[in-house]
């Protein structure tokens, strides 16, 4: 299996200069296994240059969003071109907080993903169902529709990581069980096989997000179709290092 384990830390709208320096210092001092894991941290826009300048070179940074098309007269937005100019390699798109709070539709997210890729960014594309959708039995339909809106707009999947983040598990402390997560990851991979192609399905990393912490990461990492994590709250704490090191669980399971 050629999918290198991937651990993203989404700091969301958190941090002061002092806190940022402390988190980076903890990461820089950690013994992560770079041969087994890709580590990408995503601070708020304004901290990106600082984090990039301080962070160890084997870890990377991601923006938490970018504008849907070429920059210009779009007050308050940050374009893909600006991120590229700053040397930011990754961007998180389609996070459920933006989908729900800012009304980002599947199509809008698909357009953003396509534009970001066209500018040379790598994308962590988030999908996931709400509790109501899960209880209505429509989880697979929801994540398939979100993935389809991306698939219809792109032709090359090599710079995409798909993050499955059930909305009910985000920031709630209510993590999906390893079986629940594995089931959706497996369905997503099947969707990619049926609707894109087998090569993309086999090579695309599908990572899990939603209340991942140092106590549950190893068991989740051992699941066949879980290729890493997108971590929120715990990425602000020293336990993030433990989550990064759960990559060794995956290597052992292969
Ligand atoms: O992007 C990360 C997810 O929203 C997960 O956040 P959380 O780990 O705080 O639940």
Automatic annotation (TrEMBL):
Pathway: Carbohydrate biosynthesis; gluconeogenesis; Carbohydrate degradation; glycolysis; D-glyceraldehyde 3-phosphate from glycerone phosphate: step 1/1
Pfam families for this protein: TIM
Key words of the record: Cytoplasm, Gluconeogenesis, Glycolysis, Isomerase
Keyword Lyase: no
Subunit and partners: Homodimer.
HAMAP family, sorted: TIM_B
Reactions catalysed according to its record: D-glyceraldehyde 3-phosphate = dihydroxyacetone phosphate
Domain of life: Eukaryota
Entry-linked Gene3D superfamilies: Aldolase class I (3.20.20.70)
GO-annotated molecular function: triose-phosphate isomerase activity
GO annotation, cellular component aspect: cytosol
InterPro entries: Aldolase_TIM, TIM_sf, TrioseP_Isoase_bac/euk, Triosephosphate_isomerase, Triosephosphate_isomerase_AS
Organism: Platanthera zijinensis
Protein name as annotated: Triosephosphate isomerase, cytosolic
Similarity-based family: Belongs to the triosephosphate isomerase family.
Major localization class: cytoplasm
Primary enzyme class: isomerase
Coiled coil segments of this chain: none
Compartments it resides in: Cytoplasm
GO BP, sorted A to Z: gluconeogenesis; glyceraldehyde-3-phosphate biosynthetic process; glycerol catabolic process; glycolytic process
Enzyme Commission number, as recorded: 5.3.1.1
Keyword NADP in record: no
């Amino acid at each position: 299996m050629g999918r290198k384990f991937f651990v993203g830390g989404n700091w969301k709208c958190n941090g002061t200069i002092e806190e940022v320096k402390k988190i980076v210092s903890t990461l820089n001092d950690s013994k992560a296994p770079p041969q087994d894991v890709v580590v990408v941290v995503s601070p708020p826009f304004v901290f990106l240059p600082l984090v990039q300048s301080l962070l160890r070179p084997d870890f990377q940074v991601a923006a938490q969003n970018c504008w849907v098309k070429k920059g210009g007269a779009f007050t308050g937005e940050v374009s893909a071109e600006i991120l590229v100019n700053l040397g930011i390699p990754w961007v998180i798109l389609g996070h459920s907080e933006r989908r729900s709070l800012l009304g980002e539709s599947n199509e809008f997210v698909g357009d953003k993903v396509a534009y970001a890729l066209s500018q040379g960014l790598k994308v962590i594309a988030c999908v996931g169902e709400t509790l109501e959708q899960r209880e209505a039995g429509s989880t697979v339909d929801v994540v398939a529709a979100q993935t389809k809106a991306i698939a219809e707009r792109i032709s090359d999947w090599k710079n995409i990581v798909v993050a499955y983040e059930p909305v009910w598990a985000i920031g709630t402390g209510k993590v999906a069980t390893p079986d629940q997560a594995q089931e959706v990851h497996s369905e997503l991979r099947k969707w990619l096989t049926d609707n894109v192609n087998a090569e993309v399905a086999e090579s695309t990393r599908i990572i899990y997000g939603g209340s991942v912490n140092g106590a549950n990461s190893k068991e989740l990492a051992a699941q066949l179709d879980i290729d890493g994590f997108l971590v929120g709250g715990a990425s602000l704490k020293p336990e993030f290092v433990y989550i990064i090191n759960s990559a060794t669980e995956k290597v052992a399971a292969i």
